[in-house]
Amino acid sequence: MRIVKTKKELGDIVGEKKAAGLTVGFVPTMGALHDGHLSLVEEARKDSDFVVVSIFVNPTQFNNPEDLETYPRDLDKDIKLLEKYSVEVVFAPSVEEMYPEEDTRHFDFGQLDKVMEGKYRPGHFNGVAQVVSKLFDYVKPDKAFFGEKDFQQLAIIRRLVKDLGMGVEVVGCPIVREPDGLAMSSRNQLLTPEMRKNAPVIAKTLFDSLNFAAGKTVKQTRDAVVNRINETNMLKVEYFDIVDGDTLQTVENWDDSDYIVGCIAVFAGKVRLIDNVTYKNRSHEH
What we know:
alpha/beta; Pantoate--beta-alanine Ligase, Chain: A,domain 2; three-stranded antiparallel sheet; 11 helices; globular
């Protein structure tokens, strides 16, 4: 496994592999790796000849400086984990390497980034688009693997690839959960023991709402989820939106779409957790 710090060295290695006809699978991460990330790496391993994982805490996607400051970082531990998965290259650039000068690009995602995360974290997805477009440019992957926990991010990256004509296949991978249901996240390690004890209520409430929704309106379902989580000590819902899985626009009725997803963000103290659940799914790979 090679640890690469510069885009030049990365480009040389990848260029050589692609010239030899190998397919490149890419997993972009911000480090503090957990089994959710590792499931993406496993998927990339199965689907590609050559796997690149990037570890870079991207400053332009944090709208809250304190969140950037406290975001967990442990490169040595991450590298040890990746060694077990026979990853060929870990790209771990510095901020200066990724942003030698300020990135002033503004991306237009129509309505996709105006709702949910986009509404509560202004500028977040523009920062995601800046870093992902740069990484795709440097790695030139055939396939890139992203978790469905960041549901809105996945939709936006698909749109980015289409808009920029990047020719990368974006593969969404299922949410990986702790045994008690909590969606795996690097931020989970910031939870106090008591918060960690209460946090599984988020997933449990979402799963319970799948049954509750039968015979109830979208609004009743939404209110029930929000109320139940807000009644839990230390948890406070920031938003819970029930949306069309493609456009991410709120649905009023269950028959508004054949693909409906509930996306939630909850604060446990200052730690922000996100999750989602699918109410209606078309029978195809999305």
